[in-house]
């Protein structure tokens, strides 16, 4: 079914029935939509060219599209295709019926060990695939993680991702909570930035707030650079062990993705289920 969406070259807005808005971001408005031809459900992200150009984001958008169309993994949101008219650019995205992990965390305050370990395994598997394809995501955080039908994580938003290695200087926007020390110091960095982010995420999911959260940006920066955080006693020992081995100032001391996947706490608590077809496809 989805083959039409990813193989056909030229779509127009008339090929779709547009449904309810799913949300809006800084630039995009996202709608539930259905391909008229075969009723295939997608999320259609609509961006205004004028806003993209005004902000000088043409290159970033191109890269995002280029990277995301080539990544095909159960835990990475598919970007099937795109098209544009004079005014707008449209991205045809996989629909994530579970919504944002961020909202789920707000609803529940914190997640269980089982749920967190499952997400960490899914993410580590997806990032292994990204890194094998020389892509670093750089922006792993609950706002950029969507949820599939069975609650499985879908990494979205490759707007910040890059091909390795990178010494890009760029103004940072949004939350600082997930920035690794080497990015704050604007040093050369590599794919281990994603391991730092997994550590921050694991902490936030279990505790309900990120480890370096502070009242001011400069205080957050300072705490990140000193790796100054502590665990509430509610965080289980196994998770503390994992997080401590990811939140290392020195990038080369962080666990590898393979080691995260083998970590005893992840192995004991993850309840990741792979759909039968994915076993055959891979
Ligand atoms: P930006 O990428 O410009 O920073 P953003 O990441 O905040 O913006 P978008 O990616 O534009 O937001 O998406 C806006 C909202 O729409 C998301 O926060 C999410 O709730 C919803 N959404 C986006 N894509 C999907 C999707 N594929 N399936 C379901 N909901 C989606
Ligand atoms: Mg986003």
Structure description:
With 282 residues, this protein is of the alpha+beta class. The chain has 2 domains: 81 residues, Phosphorylase Kinase, domain 1 (2-Layer Sandwich); 174 residues, Transferase(Phosphotransferase) domain 1 (Transferase(Phosphotransferase), domain 1, Orthogonal Bundle), CATH 1.10.510.10. It is 39% helix and 17% strand. The chain is built from 12 helices and 10 strands. The strands form 3 sheets. A 5-stranded antiparallel β-sheet has the order 1-2-3-5-4. A hairpin with a 5-residue loop joins strand 2 and strand 3. Helix 5 packs antiparallel against helix 7 and helix 7 runs antiparallel to helix 9. It is globular and about 55 Å long. The chain starts with a helix and ends with a helix. About 2% of the residues have low confidence. Bound molecules: adenosine-5'-triphosphate (ATP) and magnesium ion.
- Strand neighbour order, sheet with most strands: 1-2-3-5-4
Label the CATH architecture of the largest domain.
Answer: Orthogonal Bundle
Shape, principal axes of CA atoms: globular
Largest sheet: number of strands, sense, barrel closure: 5 strands, antiparallel
Class per helix and strand makeup: alpha+beta
| Whole-number tally of structural domains | 2
Reading the helices and strands in chain order gives: HEEEHHEEEHHEEEEHHHHHHH
Radius of gyration: 19 Å
Bound small-molecule species = adenosine-5'-triphosphate, magnesium ion
Can you lay out the helices and strands and say which pair or pack?
Layout: H1 2-7, E1 16-24, E2 29-35, E3 41-48, H2 49-54, H3 58-70, E4 79-84, E5 88-93, E6 99-100, H4 101-108, H5 113-132, E7 135-136, E8 145-147, E9 153-155, E10 162-163, H6 181-184, H7 192-207, H8 217-225, H9 237-246, H10 257-262, H11 264-269, H12 276-281
Helix pairs in contact: 5-7, 7-9
The chain binds adenosine-5'-triphosphate and magnesium ion.
Adenosine-5'-triphosphate binds at residues 22-28, 30, 43, 45, 77, 93-96, 99-100, 146, 157, 159.
């Amino acid at each position: 079914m989805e083959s039409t969406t990813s193989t056909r070259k030229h779509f127009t807005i008339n090929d779709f029935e547009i449904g309810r808005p799913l949300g809006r971001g800084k630039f995009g408005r996202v709608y539930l939509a259905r391909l008229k031809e075969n009723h295939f459900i997608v999320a259609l992200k609509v961006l205004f060219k004028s806003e993209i150009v005004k902000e000088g984001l043409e290159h970033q958008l191109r890269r995002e599209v280029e990277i995301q169309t080539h990544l095909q993994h159960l835990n990475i949101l598919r970007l099937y295709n795109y098209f544009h008219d004079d005014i707008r650019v449209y991205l045809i995205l996989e629909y994530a019926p579970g919504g944002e992990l961020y909202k789920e965390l707000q609803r529940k305050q914190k997640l269980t060990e089982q749920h967190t370990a499952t997400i960490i395994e899914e993410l580590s598997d997806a990032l292994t695939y990204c890194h094998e394809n020389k892509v670093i995501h750089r922006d792993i955080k609950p706002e950029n993680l969507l949820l599939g039908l069975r609650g499985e994580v879908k990494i979205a938003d490759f707007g910040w991702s890059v091909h390795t290695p990178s010494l890009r200087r760029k103004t940072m926007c949004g939350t600082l909570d997930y920035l690794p020390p080497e990015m704050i110091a604007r040093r050369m960095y590599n794919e281990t930035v994603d391991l730092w982010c997994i550590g921050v995420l694991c902490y936030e999911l279990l505790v309900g707030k990120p480890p370096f959260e502070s009242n001011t940006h400069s205080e957050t920066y300072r705490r990140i650079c000193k790796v100054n955080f502590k665990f509430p006693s509610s965080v289980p020992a196994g998770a503390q062990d994992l997080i401590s081995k990811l939140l290392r100032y020195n990038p080369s001391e962080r666990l590898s993705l393979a080691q995260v996947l083998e970590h005893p706490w992840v192995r004991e608590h993850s309840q990741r289920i792979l759909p039968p077809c994915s076993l055959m496809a891979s």
